[in-house]
Amino acid sequence: MMYTFTKMHGLGNDFIILDGRQNNITLTVEQLKILANRRLGVGCDQLILLAPPRTEGCAVYMHIFNADGGEVEACGNATRCVGHLLTMESGLSGHTIETVAGFLKTSHIDGATHVKMGSPQLTSADMKLSQDSDTLFLPVDVEGLERPVGVGVGNPHMVFFVPDAEEVPLERFGRELTRHPLYPKGANVEFVSCLSRHHLRMRVWERGTGITPACATGACATVVAAVRRGFVTQGESVCVTLDGGDLSVTYDGQKITMSGPVKQSFQGTFNEMLFDL
User: Fold this and answer.
1) DSSP E strands: which ranges in the chain?
2) Looking at 81, 194, 215, 220, which residue is catalytic?
3) Mean model confidence pLDDT for the chain
4) Catalytic choice (44, 75, 194, 220)
5) What would the pLDDT profile of 129-168 be if each residue is shown by its tens digit?
6) Is the pLDDT confidence value at 213 over 80?
7) Active-site residue flag, 58
8) Are residue 179 and residue 75 in the same domain, yes or no?
9) Domain that includes residue 169, residue range
């Protein structure tokens, strides 16, 4: 069996996109790992599998798999990429994408893809933490770091505010904290420094993947956390600078809107022999 894929990225956060809307595609965890491997397969941070929508009015159902083969709830950069593909395919500027975490609305305006990310999860119950906690100052103690903010954006995040995000040993802290017992399903871990009331610098460790140049849900969680701590202004656009570039995020106290660029790298095919190791 031959598979056709599209390789895309949002600020360097890269994806293999497989279209299973016409022909059902089912891959095992081991096959997903091989595809994501940058030596053995195509290579990506996440693999995106498109399927027919389950709800009327939606353009597509989007499955998101991390490089470790685990399915996750949300990925903002992937949502922008899929929204862009749908616009190129249909000529329509806006679409509703269905995910395991709910519905995401995309629009393509002036060369950028915008996503309405919905409302964040702000309580320990909504985030499904292992114990009832104050999410504004989570009981996560790391030497030299202030307690983080917990935010859910379909997927779980812990956001640390630090004097200089460049100086944080991301590999060591990220690997340790992503498996913190407070987060039974793992956490995306962000380290953020406030450059101004409209500009944040963020670095990220994504659960199931590791260090990535960009995480759009992480940028959204960061702005929500910064609004809650009073570091940025609610309802105003905030530039979040990641290793791969800038995203624009607005949180009005209820809903999150995020926008940024996407790029198509290439298209290709592979067959099942790829999995015969």
Assistant:
1) 2-10, 13-19, 46-51, 60-66, 71-72, 94-99, 102-109, 112-118, 149-152, 156-161, 188-196, 199-206, 210-211, 238-242, 245-251, 256-260, 263-271
2) 215
3) 96
4) 75
5) 999 999 999 999 998 999 999 999 999 999 999 999 999 9
6) yes
7) no
8) no
9) 120-254
